[in-house]
Amino acid sequence: MTNPAHERIEKLVNANDVVLFMKGTALFPQCGFSSRAIAILDHLGLAYETVDVLQDMEIRQGIKEFSDWPTIPQLYIKGEFLGGSDIMMEMFEAGELQSMADEKSLKKAEA
Known about the structure:
The chain has helices spanning 4-15, 32-44, 57-67, 85-93, 96-103, and strands at 18-22, 49-52, 74-77, 80-83. The chain is of the alpha+beta class. Helix 1 (4-15) crosses helix 3 and helix 2 packs parallel to helix 4. It is globular and about 35 Å long.
């Protein structure tokens, strides 16, 4: 049996090079972890899409099952689940996120 939430999530993940499932929006994050994740992506200068899980309970629950990861935010790059804000922070500090962005030729945000 197919899960409609999982199908929607899969489409979002596959349609965008960088997508962040978060609480709130890029302009108005609704938790500190989501705010930190946005700050990292903005610092890297990457173009990204966000999905506000607070606006959609089906997605909010579905994303946890989809990734088998219990917390939000969740970052996907080129269809691959990377992790939440703690993992993003570790990868950012180690320079791994920048390297990945370069290797995968991720689009830069428009100025």
